Amino acid sequence: MLMPGKMNLVLPTILLLTGLLHAQNVQLSGRILDGSTGEPLVGATIQYPGGGGLSDIDGSFNLELSKGVYHFLIRYVGYDNQDLDLELTRDTMVTLRMNTAENLLQAAVVSTSRYARPLSESTISLDVIRPEMVQRNSPSSIEELLNKVPGVTIVGDQANIRGGSGFSYGAGSRVLLLLNDMPILQTDAGYPNWNDIPVESLGQIEIVKGAASALYGSSALNGIIHFQTAYPASEPETKISAYYTQYFNPKDPAKKWWDKAPGGWNFEFSHKRKIGKLDLVFGGFLVDLDSYNQGSGRHYGRGEIQTRYRISERATLSLGAYLNKGNTSSFFYWKDAESGAYQAAEGTVTDSKRTRYFIDPQFTYFSKAGGRHRLQGRVLSIDNNVSGGRSNASLNVFTEYQYVKDWEGLGLSLTAGAVYNRSTVNAPLYGDSTFLGQNSSLYFQLDKKIGDRLTLSTGWRYENFILKGPSQLGDYTFPGGRESQDKPVWRFGGNWQAADYTYLRASWGQGFRFPSIAEKFVQTSFGSTLITPNPTLKSETGWSSEVGIKQGVKLGGWHGFLDAAAFWSSYQDMMEFVFTGFVRGFQSQNVGNTDIKGFEVSLAGEAKIWGIPMSILTGYTYIDPKFQEFTEIDDQRSSADYNILKYRSKHQFTLDWQWTFHRLKLGASSVYLSKMEAIDSIFELVIPGVKAFREVHGGYQVWDARVAYDLHPVTLTFILRNLLNEEYASRPGLLDAPRNMLIRADWKF
Question: What is the pLDDT of residue 423?
């Protein structure tokens, strides 16, 4: 037992021993940066036998270690691993610069898990479009580029992945569009406003093929397309682009309606820079383009600003704002398939004056325990003043809390969150009524690494929808003026690294889509075509599954990957617009249960042939879309007398290829789609020339060619689109563009 007098000796002894122990420890601190840009790498792992750590928002880390010799392994998704051997005898500070992985399999993607992970470890098919592919194809609107991605088609402005959708008349989408991790579909119709995507400041685009509802909710039934803003590197960057488009005469001279060739110009710019702790990105886009379709065109401007401020080493605050204002004109279908192919049928022209904006606040905090907390939101306002009583206005407020945690030692990663989405819609298009939509959801996803080769993933989401509106809309009844529905969905997946560059994957995921306001309540007409409400329309559900392999290829100067997948999607109570008769016209209905089976093969990579760098992205997709039970009424509604879903092409081939000779770049791209075997049979009766045109024109293949020359700091680009002047219609009753040229000048400094 210690006596009080001896305590005076014990306490100093404890303090002395504690000090001696601390004297044996040293501090290893430093920063981890991108080797080419100097950008801090957030969340890089520093591992050593017995422990490790993570870099913070500034790329900084600090480890307290005993004196001795250590081997450190530094890892960051999308970068080559780095080894570091140190003998620590005193406090040491290091700066580590990591190189971007040349192996495309290690490209960092975020869409399948809401945090960065290698493309090779994805449990579902995912394609990545890099900024350089956007640049070299010079799309004034991003959907022009998406058509060149294997398995993706755009039919009537709606994105379809592997035949998951047909032609939906601008209402409802099974593909969710994201901009910086938040939805950007027009809330009342589930419609993609492609002109809102800021092409001028885009970074990477990720396309998830298959049900992603567990992480992203309704509208992700068929997949997602995720657009991401590019943030500044260590040096400021300014880009200015100006380009001119001109359309040439159609292959059939009788279809030419103009004396002076239509065309127009585009101007875009972007600037990125760091100002102390502030990251700043801003840009703008102007277009004044008269279309090859008579009376159609685009005349609008767009501007955006994105900021990110590092409050501390653990917290950032971001704010983004976007504005799109102007007018567009288009028509629904042609006057006829001959001399009137590029002219509007009476009553089908739409003139739209619009003002759209959204504001994106975001707060991110990295806890000491290694978790990432994120609170983000988007206020999206849309005011479309459209001719013919088709105007609509909506305000959508999206909020989300998100938590991500990585337990490196356990090989376990968690993504979880909660979402609340509220929309107010008022529109003559919907019976001049006001609707209120609310969506609440909880979700999580767990990813488990077992050993060095196996990754398992499971996710769950619980959704609640509430829709309120008038109980009576003309002749149509919305019982009680209120509808609500709850639905849980699950997904499971696995990825096994069978060899050094061979990755096998399998996934199964449920999907769920609540009808959009437009699908239930739209009331309008185009020419003689009526579109009427269906307030009793039910939600659609489904699942998608796939097995696939991603094989890395490194042979001589070639490096890239070959991807192959077999897939099967099944939908219950699928929603589609169908012709119900001349009294009610077209109406969104639950058409029954469907299956879409198929396979896809794609190749992406880079090589040197005869010492000349070359890059390629190519792929082939086959689908077999059918009703599970083909009824007599399905047969009557379809132009085909056999079981096939409407508005799908069974075969698709895409190619984008480029050679680089020092400052000269030569490239070509091609899209092939087989004949759309089935459409609404009524279109062959009421739209002049559709039946005859489809009998003569089957599928189509369109080629583009381009050449670019770098005159530093200016790059000049010349593109011939529809090089062979193919006459084709990507949807019935609307002819696509004849041969046209684009001349572009880019300044980068």
Answer: 94
Sequence-separated (6 or more) residues with CB below 8 Å from residue 20: none
Distance CA 330, CA 344 (A): 9
280, 134, 708, 620 alpha-carbon torsion, rounded to 10°: 160
Whole-model pTM over 0.85: yes
Instruction: Sketch the domain layout of the chain as residue ranges.
Output: 25-101, 105-748
Q: How far apart are CA 611 and CA 600, in angstroms?
A: 31
Q: What is the CATH number of domain 25-101?
A: 2.60.40.1120
Q: Which segments of 24-130 does DSSP mark as H helices, in order?
A: none
Per-residue model confidence as pLDDT tens digits over 45-82:
787 877 777 777 778 888 888 888 888 888 776 677 78
Query: What pLDDT digit, counting tens, does each position of 188-209 carry?
Result: 888 888 999 999 998 889 898 8
Tell me what percent of the chain is helix, strand and coil, each rounded to the nearest 5. 10, 55, 30
- Give the C-alpha distances (Å, rounded to integers) separating 215 from 176, 219, 491, 526: 11, 11, 9, 37
The string over 645-677, giving b where at least 16 C-beta atoms fall within 10 Å of a residue's C-beta and e elsewhere, is bbbbbbebbbbbebbbeeeebebebbbbbbebb
Place of tokens 């009342």: 188
The set of residues, in sequence order, having a beta carbon less than 8 Å from that of 516 and lying 6+ positions away, is: 171, 172, 188, 189, 190
Residue appearing with tokens 């210690």: 2
| Cα–Cα distance, 109 to 228 (Å, whole number) | 11
Among all chains, which residue has been given the structure tokens 């009753």? Answer: 733
The 10 Å Cβ neighbour count of residue 415 is 21
**What's the CATH class of domain 105-748?**
mainly beta
